[in-house]
Every structure is written in structure tokens, then in C-alpha cells.
């Protein structure tokens, strides 16, 4: 594969999804002052097989050295750069209910290069309120946020019933990356990337297993 | 397959993971006063194929009626019951940093049957503080929380560096369901169910696509 065709195709989605895990494992090694790491060690601490790790890293042009492994600092830089983490990504959060306020006040985005720069709500009674260091803005400002590429990522923290409407407004305003915290499915054009964080679904899956543990067969009782 | 062997095996994991989506689609239909739904309609609003939907629901012993479809109310009950949502699941949150506090204050768990009944932190300076309606308790109370099955689900909101330690303490205290918000991999015994919610990874995957859109090929620049 030439660099040009690879650039067109990009890194496979499944590999992209595993890069953040490798990055975290490398961060841990940097913190311990470790200078080089074998593919086996890095694979174990990332929870994948070493064959998969080597294949994933080969997509970044990183092959390691036999008997020495990977240079921790350089590999960390390569992955950060591949993921686009060597620059800052401004984030707008839409929907200032409980979850939106919690996310806006959550300090964990900024250290990773994701800065919440705008919070919006469609309720006029909420617009103008302070949430952390920001003032809630009306939905009408959405298009102005993407001018000149200021804001890159839109976070949907609206209720499920209005999530499609918010997604449509984000797309119309020129957002092409959406992180959706609302339960349910949203439809967007092909050029828009959507990632989902669904607390409700994860809890319900745990409830299923917890019920099976405490009342075996209850999941199927109605089927008998 | 007999009901007994099905009860032993349970519903396939992939089906369990899709049930919350069907439930949400059915909630929407109930709200609209719709009494019955075809597999095609329900599949479309859940974002799956109708063949997959019918297969999934057959694991619950629900087959629908040709030309009529599924009874919305009954199917909703069957799925709720299969998922264990006809009872309440008390939740304990471990780690009262930004994320833990945000989750403890987030009002969205309770209406779905997940009630936050305890918040814990290992820092003596944080223990005793109020978070919402609760007082932060020390880690030493963990074993008492699971006595008599009071608390079912442990939520890890600790930093990545201490997430394995918290997981070990949850397992030792008798928790068998863990929702992990800390980045990285945690190891638990086979009988313990872990689900992950990883905001950082989702944002990093979006950053990758956003970078490819704004600077095509930058992900592979270091590889050339």
C-alpha cells in the first residue's frame, strides 16, 4: 500500500477505536519512566493480542525493533498525531438538563485537549443561566460556532425525544462530529461522524446479568 | 430449544445489548398511544433489520402475529422483565472527583430504576462531604453495602490509575456488576460483569475523523 492510498483510505475504524487504549497504556509507561516496550507487554496492558497490536501499529507505519520493541515516547507521539490529539478540539454541548450540566461542569475533557467552549439550550428560560464558567446560549447561535472551524465537536445531551432535531440542527450548522449522549438512534448524512455514549443501555445490560444471577431463568419466565 | 436449556444459557449477549433499544422504541410508541407495531416499523425505529429484530424477540418467546405485528404493551413488559427492569437496582458510585460528583448529581438514573444509594471515596478529606442528598462514605463500608443484596451495581468513577484497585475492592466486597467510567482495562473474575463507558475514547475517535476531514493524510504523515 502506498502512503497516498493509505491516506485516502485512512486507518481502519477498528484500529482507530483501539488507538486510545494504546495511548493510555503508553501514558502509564511514560509516567513510570519506561523508555521502550515490547509488543507483548504493550498488548497485555491494552487488553489485546500482540499480533493485533502489531497489525494496528503497522497502519501508522510503526513496526518496532526486534528484541528491543517500540520507543515509548515516539510511539506515543505517532498515535497522538494519528488521532489528531496534537491540537485542541473545541466542544459545544447542546441541552442543559441534568446530564448536560454534569458534562459541562465535568473537568475531565480539557486536560485531553477537548475544551467546552459553548453550552446551548432551546428553552428560553434556561438561556442566559450560568453553567460553570459559561453562559447558556440559544440554539440560534449554532451556525456562528462553526465559522472558521472554531467549534468542531457537538455533544448532544438533550432528551431522546429531541435528539434527532438537535442532530439535524448541528448538521445544518456545519458540525461533522457528534457525540450523542441521548438514548436512541439518530440519522445523519454519511459525512457526519456520530459516536454514542449510552449510560442507560449499559446499566440495563448489567441489570439483565444481575437478575440472572439473583433469579435464574426470570428473563425467560414469560416465555414458558 | 427447551425453556430449561434456554434459561441456563440465557439470551445471547448481542441480543441483550439490543433489547434496551427496542424498549426505548416501544416507550415512544406507548407515548403516542400506538397499540400494535409491525416488526418492520419497530426495526426501523430501533436501527436494525427486521430479520434481526424477529430473531432477537424469538429468544424472549415473542413472535408477533402475521398481519398484526406485536402488541406494544405486552412486548414492552416482556423486554422489561427480561432485562430485570421490573425491579429497582441500587447503585454505589466509587470516586468523588469531577465525574463521580457529576454522575451522583445526574438525575437520569433514578427514573429508569437505578437509584444511587451510596457514594464513596478513599480520600479521608472527601469522606463526610455532601454530594447531592448523600454523604461520602469511606471505602471500608463497601462490604456492608452488599449485605442482603442491598446494592447491586458498583460504578467506578475513580482515576484510571486506581481503577483496578477499586475493581478489586468491589469484587472482594461481593459486587458482581460493575459500570466502569475509568479509562483503561480492568481485570475481574469470570462471574463479574463489567460494562464500560469511555468518554475519552469516543472523543478521541471523533478527533481522528475531524482531523482527517480538516487535514487529510495528517494521521499518516509521520509514517511517510
From TrEMBL, chains A, B:
Top-rank taxon? Bacteria
Q: Where located? A: Cytoplasm
Question: Is Repressor there in the keyword field?
Answer: yes
Q: Which GO terms describe its biological process?
A: negative regulation of DNA-templated transcription; response to redox state
Looking at the UniProt record for this protein, which Gene Ontology cellular component terms does it annotate, in alphabetical order? cytoplasm
Specify the CoA-binding domain's residue ranges. Answer: 84-185
Q: Which residues bind DNA?
A: 21-60
Q: What does this protein do?
A: Modulates transcription in response to changes in cellular NADH/NAD(+) redox state.
The similarity comment for this entry is: Belongs to the transcriptional regulatory Rex family.
PANTHER family this protein is in?
A: REDOX-SENSING TRANSCRIPTIONAL REPRESSOR REX (PTHR35786), REDOX-SENSING TRANSCRIPTIONAL REPRESSOR REX 1 (PTHR35786:SF1)
The protein here is known as Redox-sensing transcriptional repressor Rex
Q: Which organism is it from?
A: Janibacter melonis
Gene expressing this chain: rex
